Amino acid sequence: MSRLQERLTHLWAHEKASAALRVSIAFGAAMALCWHQQQLAAVPAIFLGIIASALAETDDNWLGRTKAVLLSLLCFAAAAAAVTLLFPYPLAFIACLAVATFGLTLLGALGERYASIAQGTVALAIYAAIGVDQAGPGDTVAAWRGALELLAGAAWYGLLSIVWTVLFANRPVRERMARLFAELGRYLQIKAALFEPVRHGDLHARRLALSEQNAKVVAALEATKNAIISRFGRSGRPGVQSGLYFRLYYMAQEFHERASSSHYPYEALIEAFFHSDVLYRGRRLLDLQGRACRALGEAIHLRRPFRYGERTRQAMVDLRESLDYLHAHGDAHDAGRRARLLGSLESLVGNLQAIDRRLSEDTLSDAPLDGMDLRLRDSSPHTLREMATRIGQQLSPTSVLFRHGLRMALALTAGYAVMQATDAENGFWILLTIAFVCRPSYGATRLRLVQRVAGTLVGLLATWALMQLFTGVEVQLLLALLAAVVFFVSRTDRYVLATAAITLMALLCFNLIGDGFVLIWPRLLDTVIGCAIAAAASFLVLPDWRGRQLHLVMARVLDASARYLAEVLGQYRSGMRDDLPYRVARRDMYNADAALSVALSNRLREPGRYRGDLDAAFRFLALSNTLLGYLSALGAHRGALDPDASAPLHAAGETLQRALADIAGALSRRQPLPAVDTDAESALAGQLEQADDSASGIDPRQRLVGNQLALLLRLLPELRAATDALAAPAGMDAAAAATG
What pTM does this model have? Predict the structure, then answer.
């Protein structure tokens, strides 16, 4: 019995278990009611209404969810009524659909909630058109009944989601927190591979893998922050229950900063300590701490105590002893450089000790949060003026949402024209395919359309086989219910499976009111036509080529790095404060670096002639990751320094800030870099290194700051060379580069 309970506990704790159970209840109750009332013909419309409402669902507290449901239902009612009234007038219908799609897309500027409502509204409008088309011309009673059934399904799921939010208020926060520590654990384990003492190892590939994982950690941090804000607000006054989540979130931020730190080039450390076991022990400890973070995530998910492993504690002791041995048995040859190397290892060990100490504490207890600045930055607009300003900023061809909205509107218009010209039966599936396949970027659209076609083929084959095997209505209804649940649990990460499931559900439902077999070929043909139109729109209508925008993403990385450096240096003057301005600057830097990694991933899916110089772009990514590592090390060890002794350090820091800002400005404008006295920067780096080598009894923190600033100064020539390599070709039209 205990084993069964254990399995059920793990099953319920699964991230998608809550959504699966919720949609199962929604679809099952609707199907049972229709069966009891002998109104099986209403099942397709009610199911589609549930789907539209679920697409509009976002994480929120019960009050926010109630407001979102009411707004969704208002938009759904307006869309269903407009479609039903305008359907007999093709020009008015498609004009209204195109304008509404464009306007709803711009609502995405207000945040995820409004973007989801917009997506659900467009989907419901097309569902309503499918219902009117099925009812036939002139049958207004059936058309309005279908619209009401859609709204009934949407209202039923909205009510269920509100009740669910009340019953399981904090579950989404717990799930996102668990995912955050799982991603952090993977990051630490990938970082551990960089310390493997193997000569001629493929450090470049490991750095790219680390960069990709860093983007996942940044996304998990953002999702967790949004979940905390939606539940507990942004004022930083948590209650007893929410205090645990605030502490875990800030602990995750600290771990990320420490894990991102780089205190010396990895190649130099491997070469210098190749014959020592210190790097191996550091690698082992990082790997064990990564596993501990993943175990902490599982403990949060299952709501169980977390126990820090004894092996990890012993690994920390072994690393400390190995480093002490190096200090005691070092030779006098090149003592200055050896001191810098050992100082870098000391800083690394200090970071790992800090992580070890935090994991050793009673992590899941309700310890007090006195003295901590717990405010969170909430970037969502909260007044009508702020909302109007956000939307107004999107009314420009340079806006991604403007481009995407216009692209969607024109693609739907083209799809409707093809449907009318060919008199396609069930042709609104063309519009439905366009709505779900067309993405803001060409690369994402291309990936989605391939997945859509593949999933549709699988779904049609499964439908044909299952309708042959199971001819009874009862079994087909159960299969449709199962397919609907599979669609919702897989639509975010397994789109091929989700498409196959929704195809199966749609044809089984339509088989209740007709012959589902005759819809197989039209479904496939309409999907192919819709994908072709979406691909053409992404390629031809204001294409958002990443190559033309990449210089702006890179400039934001350097600009955010300069602002973060200013915050860090300020705390070396006044003392360590983990306050909101510092956390905002740190988060902006990590977000900018993650955005660069994502932009390069999207660029790989674009046509060859629009990719530009990918080698130069990835070299810049590697340099930006190195820059982030050096800056993170400064942030992880920040604290007040002696004002007199640290004056040269602050002067070097200001030189770095100006240099990073100048490079960022040149990148954003795609202009040549201004003339720079690189010899002076190199001399300054040499002075910092010489000061560290010659000074005896120097403050370890002061030595670390001097070493990190010297590393950053040495990195500037490489950043400038990468910037020159990415400069716009001669004669390139600047306006085209800006607007893409």
Answer: 0.85
